[in-house]
Amino acid sequence: MADTAAGGTRPAQPVQRVLVAADKFKGSLSAVEVADRVTAGLRGIVPGLEVEALPVADGGDGTVAAAVAAGFDRREVRVQGPLGDPVTAAFALRGDTAVVEMAEASGLQRLPQDTFAPLTASTYGSGELLRAALDAGARSIVLGVGGSATTDGGAGMLAALGARFLKADGEPVAPGGGGLAELASADLSGLDPRLGEAELVLASDVDNPLTGPKGAPAVYGPQKGASAEDVERLDVALAHFAKIVEEAVGPRAAAYAASPGAGAAGGIGYGALLLGARFRPGIEVMLDVLGFAPALERADLVITGEGSLDPQTLHGKAPAGVAAAARAADKEVVAVCGRLALPPEELGRAGIRRAYALTDLEPDVTRCIAEAGPILERTAARIARDFLT
Q1: Helix (H) and strand (E) counts for the chain?
Q2: Count of domains in the chain?
Q3: What residues contact residue 343 under an 8 Å CB cut-off, 6+ apart?
Q4: What pLDDT score does 205 carry?
Q5: DSSP calls for 175-205
Q6: Second label for 318, Cα 20 to 30 Å away, from 127, 146, 286, 334?
């Protein structure tokens, strides 16, 4: 791959068609808006340029929107939010393939502003979304996880799909991870039988186990408002949950708890594995579902990106997945971002020839976020001058 320095940006061959496959700029622009602004900026310099927009996501928030932009139908359903209040959530459907985003039902954005509920937030609504996808005829379901408000090991999701989790007095345990400390028995025999006939893929960009130092409570609990004491309580409760489930379904429950991805989105990954899901990196799954390969074949230059290009980007985030696939196809890749925190050599190893940050044009981060759209258009114009003229 060519160097990532400021100079030497001219492509070896004339560019005829550009593919814009970028994720959202969190807090400022959706993936669709990023594609629109980049397209406008490119065409401002090269009128009539062929640009194909394919907004991408890695399984977290924005995944359904990316699927809808790629031609899936948007379906809405009323489900329980993380605190039990009704919310309108969406999933995407095309033929018998559904894309379900757990954050639509159980994400942090579903909590009241400045409110966290680390011990009581439930994934019940995510289970209702899965059931709605089955009702709509889905037989292949991608469950994108990330941005969750919950740390309940997927217990709420499983309960919505027919599992029973009871205390010693025979009453259901309280919602959320905290309630699992009182779990006395688990019964998964009532799970929706259609799950056994469907292909379920757990799409995530993290590979944490359920519990322990790298588990869901320890690593992600504080992001959801968990104190040090809450983290300890949740870790003990989830370990107890896995032990009781093991008594109900056998040794596979313990194996799932230790498996990569079990700790994704507060442990909903564990619940998905119990349903028979296959774990795959979220961006790989979404590129398949969105039809990235044929779009890549049509392109001469690929533009990817996200809000912050930093070390986390290299661990399963959308731009890294796009760049890896493009490099394998011998296609040139440049990136746009709000903030750049990767040196040129790391970008090059990831398959990104050059990255363009909004902060290059507007160093004031607050203004950069507030005016991200116009600044991104100006940034895309820079790419056009460097690569297309």
Answers
A1: 15, 13
A2: 2
A3: none
A4: 86
A5: SSTGGGGG--EEE-TTS-GGGGGSEEEEEES
A6: 127
Q: Could you tell me if 50 and 18 are in contact, meaning their C-beta atoms sit under 8 angstroms apart?
A: yes
Reference 262, options 151, 98, 379; nearest CA is 151
Q: What is the pLDDT of residue 18?
A: 98
Check pLDDT > 60 for residue 362.
Answer: yes
User: What tokens were used for 167?
Assistant: 């205390």
d(CA 129, CA 199): 16
CA distances from 58 to 14, 101, 183, 281, 352 (A): 31, 11, 33, 8, 18
Residue type at 324?
Answer: A
pLDDT digits (tens, 9 = 90+) for 137-177: 999 999 999 899 999 999 999 999 999 999 999 999 999 99
Q: What angle do CA 10, 14, 16 make, to 5 degrees?
A: 125
Q: Are residues 180 and 234 in the same domain?
A: yes
Residue 9 falls inside a structural domain: no
Q: Average pLDDT in the 63-69 region? A: 94
pTM over 0.70: yes
Q: Tokens 């062929």 belong to which residue?
A: 50
- Check which CATH number belongs to the domain holding 374 and give it: 3.40.50.10350
Report the distance separating Cα 47 and Cα 40, nearest Å. Answer: 9
The domain spanning residue 272 has which CATH number? Answer: 3.90.1510.10
Q: Structural domain of residue 179, as residue ranges? A: 63-283
Of 257, 283, 309, at which residue does a domain stop?
A: 283
